[in-house]
Design goal:
17% strand, 717 residues, six-stranded parallel sheet, 25 helices
């Protein structure tokens, strides 16, 4: 199943559906019946009928089918001389009369094969002016639905009083889209579905690659933004007519979805609440702000706000962070309520315990988060810091200074505390920020974002930090290499790889946290036991938790090693082994060494020596954090000198690989990249450099008359 949209939860209660099928769905490009498409649709309707839904069908296509049939008959009955004469356009009403017969014969045949009965009801505009007709229509449809019969409506164009089926848009309804909307109201339907030849309503012509699918139509926002393309190749009005009918029905209380009639099972997916097509609903304006901007607008707003932030004094930026820390503590109850709702929803959805653990803000966490923001606020201001000062020539001084990167896009996992850390780091480093958190933490992220942005003064603007709420916005953001300067994805290997392959923007981060602890034969085993247990048990879901334990082969038969295994098992750790350990310890063999459990589980394997351990780490690791427990300094030096990971520890738990524990205040993530920042990325990792040249009228002029000194100057404190 695709993504279920929470705003479409009402679809679970739908019973009576009016379904309108457009001519472009019923026919192929050559005008002939799209038999396979129509057959698939009838099968969906049969399933819905069986499940207890009441389905009312409004079908276009009669005029087109009639025209195709009459043209063919006229062709085979014409002489060669007749064909040389100017061809007169066929009468539309005659086409409608012939085509309606063809269309109903086809529906009857298809439904009969599925053991479903159908009924034809032809109506005209003038019929609806008669109150008695409308009551009788309602009674008849009610009777048909009670018998599990599918009513099929069409405008009776053959006897319509309009000048021509395609020309007159006056009256109560003017085409089958508006007829479907009228019937939905008259027959008290729960939902109107308009099937088209495109996925839904786009912001511009669907053929334009810049056009985006609009998932929820908000009249106040979209009616002035949409550019319609050409009218449908067949039928009367195309998307313009569908939108007009949808808006009228939605604001009269009937929800409407426009979606493709080409995609298999689309109708079923609509009723399951999947986020396909375009939804029209009278309450849509309550679900989304009219002032919402597109991806580019959000990124530009963040950049403009960041420049105002950079223009502030160091003390002013510090005060913003202190105000945010106070606001987080002041709103602790609200934050906890929203977080508990996220945790409860995750548990009910059956998510893994490791994800629920990351999601929960445990007691004391909010105070801890506020304090971490205060630590950042009290750190030395990193912006405009002179890193190097050089006299190029007499009176010409060059300074290399620290500078914000610009605008950051950070896609992070379902950890609400990460939002606070990332936002505070962005403010301290003077960067604009766009955040996309995991959907499981939607409510927690929303309240934290609200609390933080409301604490930012208007002189900077809350748009400094934008919260991206839909996964569908990410592809658009990844195209904005001219306004977004760095992407930091925090999550699965698949997520990181997808982002790297989808953007020209530099990407910083790590895919996996496959951290190793190697216990050498020279290790103090009491120390080893403490470190191994901490590395696995302190926070099993963390990316710096131990996932693989490598043990020198000489320790296999020792009592201290056996005690370590007993302790791991008694703490509930599930053990998997490599080829050697699985046989010796009688445990299941791990299907791969490149595995991040993020839970109370780990892999154990025996190695011959430190060099074998290093080779194993290089082959199966993720270059995150590795630890050696040893007393032999020569072995330790070999490990330090050869292990090519972002963080390498001696006699210390891998859990120390953390921005806060490193004294960075917080971290935006841990990078295993070899360019720019590596390891825990704090404020310094979100900075770049720029050159400031201070002169007194010097010119190059072919380097005549200037004597370069290139002398290092002391940096003033």
């Amino acid at each position: 199943m695709g993504d279920v949209d929470s705003s479409r939860g009402f679809l679970r209660d739908v019973k009576r559906i009016v379904l309108k099928v457009g001519t472009a769905v019923v026919t192929r490009k050559d005008g002939r019946i799209a038999l396979g498409r129509l057959g698939a649709l009838c099968e969906q309707l049969k399933e819905l009928n069986t499940q207890g839904y009441e389905v009312i069908l409004v079908s276009s296509g009669a005029v087109g089918l009639g025209r195709q049939r009459l043209k063919y008959r006229k062709l085979i009955n014409s002489s060669f001389a007749d064909l040389q004469k100017p061809q007169v356009e066929l009468d539309g009403k005659a086409c409608a009369a012939v085509g309606q017969n063809c269309l109903m014969a086809l529906y009857d045949t298809l439904f009969s094969q599925l053991d479903v009965s159908s009924a034809q009801l032809l109506v005209t505009d003038s019929d609806f002016r008669d109150r008695d007709f409308r009551k009788q229509l309602s009674d008849t449809v009610k009777s048909l639905l009670s018998l599990k019969v599918i009513p099929i409506f069409n405008e009776n164009d053959a006897v319509s009083t309009r000048r021509a089926p395609y020309e007159d848009s006056s009256g109560i309804f003017w085409d089958n889209d508006s007829l479907a909307a009228l019937l939905a109201l008259e027959l008290k339907a729960d939902l109107l579905v308009l099937l088209s030849d495109v996925e839904g309503l786009y912001s511009g012509p669907p053929s334009d690659p810049r056009s985006k699918l609009i998932h929820t139509y908000i009249k106040e926002k979209h009616q002035t933004e949409i550019t319609f393309g050409d009218k449908s190749r067949v039928g009367r009005g195309g998307m313009t007519a569908k939108v007009k009918a949808a808006v009228n029905a939605a604001y009269a209380g009937i929800p409407v979805i426009i979606t493709s009639g080409y995609a298999p099972e689309n109708l079923t997916k609509v009723l399951q609440g999947e986020r396909i097509g375009t939804l029209f609903h009278q309450d849509a304006h309550l679900w989304c702000s009219v002032k919402d901007v597109d991806a580019r607008g959000m990124a530009i707003a963040a950049r403009e706000s960041s420049r105002r932030l950079q223009a502030m004094t160091s003390e002013q930026r510090k005060k913003i962070l202190l105000d945010i820390a106070d606001a987080i503590e002041a709103n602790a109850k609200k934050i906890n309520v929203e977080n508990e709702a996220d945790v409860s929803a995750a548990q009910q959805a059956g998510y893994e315990k490791s994800l629920v653990a990351r999601l929960a803000l445990k007691p004391g966490k909010i105070t801890s988060l506020a304090n971490s923001v205060r630590v950042l606020a009290n750190m030395e201001d990193p912006i405009g810091h002179v890193l190097k000062k050089t006299e190029l020539a007499d009176g010409l001084v060059l300074e290399k200074t620290s500078s914000p990167l610009g605008v950051l896009l950070i896609v992070f996992e379902s950890r609400p505390d990460a939002l606070v850390q990332i936002a505070s780091l962005a403010i301290r480093s003077g960067n604009g920020l766009l955040l996309k958190g995991g959907k499981e933490a939607k409510r927690s992220n929303a309240i934290l974002h609200k609390v933080i942005t409301e604490a930012i003064p208007e002189s900077v603007g809350g748009k400094l930090i934008g919260l991206v709420t839909s996964r569908e916005e990410i592809p658009d953001l990844l195209k904005l290499d001219d306004v977004i300067d760095l992407v930091i994805p925090r999550g699965s290997n698949k997520l990181v790889s997808q982002i790297k392959n989808s953007t020209k923007i530099p990407v910083l981060g790590h895919a996996d946290g496959i951290c190793h602890v190697y216990v050498d034969k020279s290790a103090n085993m009491d120390m080893a036991k403490q470190i191994v247990l901490d590395a696995k048990l302190d926070y099993p879901a963390a990316c710096n938790a131990m996932e693989t334990l490598l043990v020198h082969k000489d320790l296999m038969h020792t009592t201290p090693f056996n005690d370590l295994i007993v302790d791991l098992r008694s703490e509930g750790v599930t053990l998997y082994g490599g080829p050697r350990a699985s046989v010796f310890l009688h445990i299941p063999e791990a299907h791969s060494f490149h595995l991040e459990y993020s839970s109370l589980a780990c892999t154990i394997e025996f190695v011959d020596d430190v060099h074998a351990a290093i080779d194993h780490i290089h082959e199966h690791g993720s270059a995150h954090t590795e630890c050696i427990i040893a007393e032999d300094q020569e072995v330790v030096n070999a490990f330090f000198g050869q292990v090519d990971s972002a963080a390498v520890f001696h006699n210390a738990s891998t859990r120390f690989c953390d921005g806060a524990r490193f004294g960075l205040g917080a971290e935006v993530g841990i990078s295993t990249s070899r360019i720019h920042a590596r390891g825990p990325v704090g404020v310094e990792g979100l900075l770049t450099t720029r050159w400031i040249l201070k002169g007194s009228g010097q010119v190059v002029n072919g380097d005549k008359g200037i004597i370069y000194t290139h002398k290092d100057l002391p940096i003033e404190p």
